[in-house]
Design goal:
Blueprint (H helix, E strand, L loop, with lengths): L2 H9 L4 E6 L2 E6 L4 E6 L4 E5 L2 H8 L5 E3 L3 H4 L2 E5 L5 H20 L1
Antiparallel strand pairs: 1-2, 2-3, 3-4, 4-6, 5-6
């Protein structure tokens, strides 16, 4: 997957917008927190999963790993998008998005 394809995929989720976030592009549901980021030049995406989901996704590919700091302990997970199947990325994004939407409506 390319950075452009990742961006198109994330923005296909209802109410999602993007903006600059340090050296990355951040994606969030309008009025809520960020659920994914993209470092375009390295084709690296960070997606916010639950810690249990993080374990499952990391077991699927060597190209998926926890962010190596306190953010990773909270479920932030790095995806080397060029080396991960599109359907796996879509599934992770959907999970992160649904978590945000549930919190928005709660």
């Amino acid at each position: 997957m390319t950075s452009a394809a990742f961006t198109k995929m994330v923005l296909s989720f209802d109410g999602t917008m993007n903006h600059s976030h340090f050296d990355r592009v951040a994606f969030k549901v309008v009025g809520k927190r960020i659920f994914a980021t993209l470092l375009e030049e390295k084709s690296l995406a960070n997606i916010k999963l639950s810690p249990s989901e993080q374990l499952i996704f990391c077991s699927m590919s060597k190209a998926i790993s926890p962010v190596p700091n306190k953010w990773g302990e909270q479920g932030w997970t790095t995806f080397e998008i060029k080396n991960v199947e599109n359907n796996i990325i879509l599934e992770a994004l959907n999970s992160a998005y649904q978590d945000i939407v549930k919190k928005k409506n709660a």
